[in-house]
Amino acid sequence: MIILNRNSSETARSYAMRVLLYNIIHVELQPGSAVSENELSSALSLSRTPIREALIELNRIGLVEILPQRGSYISKINYAIVEESRFVRLVMETAVIKLACESITDDYLLALKQNIEQQKACQTTKDGDRFLEIDNEFHRLIFECAGKMWSYHFVEEQMVHFDRLRALAAKSGYAKSTIPDHEDILYALKRKDAEMAEIFMTRHLTRYQTEKTEIMKQYPEYFTK
């Protein structure tokens, strides 16, 4: 498990939640594996209370199973829920990309270009975790450019299940189309061509269906049957 630094203003519960969420999304805590309150408490230097509260919240959003008399387990990836998450993102991002075409500035175009260069560097070093973070930042910049940050945070909350699949794709080398897709999206934004941008974004957010098949073959134990 990766232990993140605690922010000075962060409550114990928020810190526990952030660390656990990061490790679940990045599959450092593997689907189906047991988690111990005592071990987490020791690893994070926290009492058991904030750990328990974080596990209860993760149970609420479907990332942890709490079984009476048996303990807590990281939920396996449910493809039906992944598809729901992907659907929310597709609907929101295809609308936002068209708005971004109307409001895109040179500063945002430069930021997106620099972001793609960072993605290429991560691909070279095979840093899947960092690649996923920079990928998310690429999409966040588009929401910010369109003036839809509240919508971004809404989508972000819905994406945790889909993000586990994306993290596996990045770790396993199946996300090879991500950078070319982002370059195409940037090209459409430069042209301020909303129709082209929507087509490229739709293609980008539906590629996972092919990746999903390969990932499920490689990690069948991570998925619900």
TrEMBL record:
It comes from the Bacteria. InterPro entries: GntR_C, TF_FadR/GntR_C, Tscrpt_reg_HTH_GntR, WH-like_DNA-bd_sf, WH_DNA-bd_sf. Keywords: DNA-binding, Transcription, Transcription regulation. The keyword DNA-binding applies. The keyword ATP-binding does not apply. Residues 10-77 form the HTH gntR-type domain. PANTHER family: HTH-TYPE TRANSCRIPTIONAL REPRESSOR RSPR, TRANSCRIPTIONAL REGULATOR, GNTR FAMILY. This is GntR family transcriptional regulator.
